Amino acid sequence: MKRRLLCLLLVLVLLAACVLPASAASFTDISGHWAESYIKRVVSMGLFNGVTSTEFRPGVAMDRAMFVTVLGRLRQYLGGFKLDDWSSRQWMLPYRFTDVKSTAYYAPYLTWATLHGITNGTGTYTFSPKLEITREMMATMIANFLKMEGYKVSQTVSAPKFSDASQISSWARDSVTYLARAGILQGLSDGKGGVRFAPKKSATRAECAAVFCRLYDAIKKDFTPSYPSSLQLSNGTLEMETGKSLTLTVSLYPSSVTNKTVVWISNNSSVVKVNANGKLTAVSPGTARVYAMADRVYVYCTVTVKRAAGSNLAYNGMSYRDKCLMVYGRYIDGEYSGAFRTVYTTQEEALANQVSITVPVWTIYNGSKISGTRTFQIHKNLAATVKQIFQEIYDAPDKPPINVAGGWRWRSYEQSEHNMGTALDLNPNSNPYVYSGSDPYSAGFKPGEDPYSIPIGGTIDQIFAKYGFKRGIYWNSGNKDYMHYSFFGW
Fold first, then answer.
1. Rounded CA separation 118/187 (Å)
2. Which of the residues 10, 295, 408, 486 has the least number of beta carbons within 10 Å of its own beta carbon?
3. Is a pLDDT exceeding 60 seen at residue 221?
4. 91 lies in the same domain as 198
5. Three-class SS state of 24
6. Beta strands 250-253 and 279-282: pairing type?
7. C-alpha 221: how far from chain center
């Protein structure tokens, strides 16, 4: 009995240690600190908590997850709706960050910030939540927040002349200038009588507390926003052909609202893309929803995309029959037996149906990405599709590198899709073939560490899937081929 009581007391003590204070009065590390008044204020506003029950740790760097959370809490404090339940809107995201769990404390805030264009992450599918936020990152997020939420702040301070202005990234310069002129961001002494911005320096919790106080004061001084209660789209349903574009319009009610910011989102950008002005572009056959969202209300248009007449490109969702007709010109009975892999019985017959293509790629030389090309053979009826795939990979913002690309090859002992010219292998040295139950990471698959290891669900996977190709990690046999992309899925 005594042991049970001791265990219960120990649990209660541990739980008490996890409870963060609602007041800054218990913090032992802020007395006399230059940011003491700011810290007390942001804690009382509910924007910040302590790191422990007795420590605020003002000198600790703020990470990106913490920052986007505080930004969302400020939005709530200014009168906006609560964001705690925004994890339920993750289905609206055009993509998911692979390094963010839906159960993370910051997930609902990140969903809100992503949908509103406040952050796009550090890569196409990564947010880097634990990465320390730099002062220029902070400036950009805040400027995007002001723009997308429709807040106005007066430009009352003379434009500062930062001695390190040339070190501010081009994507952050306008944001830094705008916030500095509003008195929200301030410089640091450069030790020479001047002021520097220190764009690459990590922002501390104390610095962020001060910035959020100034941000709140600037917004409340100049602007009281009002938000729409309902929206109406010009179209509720649409049919489009691949390659075609049109623009949706949205009406906000009541028309007197001050915040007229509308965020456009496609829940499947591989089918239809939408830009910031509501312009739709049909990409590939399928169905998608395009959302117009303003504050807490949204409406959507269901878009059905059909293949344009005369198109010679494959697409996601093609039936097995249509794939056979596209490649071989006839239906090959026996999808699950792999009968299509024995259509060409000799090397000479298979080779007669292949063409050599040259595609653009990014590769790495001396630590930098450089442009190059790769040449390989592929089935003549898939050549246009594969060229399109590599062009889109090459044009992607993250420039995924490809050092080896192999297509058709003949192996008399193995009836694979390579024999037919309907499969490709990419970066084989960094994307291994592993047998069922084996560990791919021990075999050399190291995405994020090795730039040639192709991340699961990343840019290359997405683009190949868009045109009906399947990666070899999804084989039913249990074996997994991380380098392999095939049209029929074998």
1. 23
2. 10
3. yes
4. yes
5. helix
6. unpaired
7. 34
| pLDDT for the residue numbered 190 | 80
Alpha helix stretches (DSSP H) within 59-172? 64-77, 107-115, 135-149
Question: What is the C-alpha separation between 457 and 251, in angstroms, rounded?
Answer: 36
Res. 177 pLDDT band, cuts 50 70 90: very high
Instruction: Give first-to-last CA distance, the chain, whole Å.
Output: 62
Query: Considering the domain boundaries, does residue 10 fall inside one?
Result: no
- What lies within 8 Å, CB to CB, of 103 at 6+ separation is 87
Residue 18's pLDDT band (boundaries 50, 70, 90)?
very low
294 in Cβ contact with 255 (< 8 Å):
no
Q: Is residue 117 part of a domain?
A: yes
Same domain, 103 and 158: yes
Lookup: tokens for 120: 């796009």
Domain match, 278 and 388 both:
no
Query: Do 197 and 282 reside in the same domain of the chain?
Result: no
Choice between 422 and 262, residue whose per-residue pLDDT is larger: 422
- To the question of pTM greater than 0.90 for the whole model, the response is no
Dump strand ranges (E) for 318-461.
354-365, 368-379, 405-406, 423-426, 433-434
d(CA 283, CA 245): 10
Same structural domain for residues 426 and 377? yes
Domain match, 190 and 43 both:
yes
Full domain range(s) for residue 114: 19-222
Domains contained in the chain, number? 3
Average pLDDT over residues 271-286: 89
